[in-house]
Write a structure and sequence with these properties.
Pfam families: Fer2_BFD. One of its GO terms (molecular function) is 2 iron, 2 sulfur cluster binding. Belongs to the Bfd family. The protein has one domain: Arc Repressor Mutant, subunit A (Orthogonal Bundle), CATH 1.10.10. Helix content is 51%, strand content 6%. The protein contains five helices and two strands. Helix 1 packs across helix 3.
Length: 85
């Protein structure tokens, strides 16, 4: 079933990207553009990710050490007041 009509992205493609580490709608958008045009699919992507489409997220939620550590650091937005180097 299609999740994103604008770019023809299916539920399976979202799951495949999640299996590779894309665990947020923003990361899915970076991987395949889903959610970047009309935005109508973002809630569906969130629902898929929330229902276990991202096994790495589930491991992190269970306290598995080292899971997602580097990715979270690289993808985190700078804190307010932080200066660029």
């Amino acid at each position: 079933m299609y999740v994103c009509s604008c770019f023809g992205i299916t539920e399976q493609q979202v799951r495949d990207h999640a299996d590779k580490g894309a665990c947020t709608p923003r990361q899915i958008a970076s991987a395949c553009k889903a959610g970047t045009d009309c935005g109508g699919c973002v809630r569906r992507i969130q629902a898929l990710l929330g229902r276990g489409a991202c096994p790495r997220r589930e491991l992190a939620d269970q306290g598995e050490p080292g899971v997602l550590g580097a990715e979270v650091t690289l993808l985190a937005a700078p804190s307010p007041g932080a200066r660029a180097a």
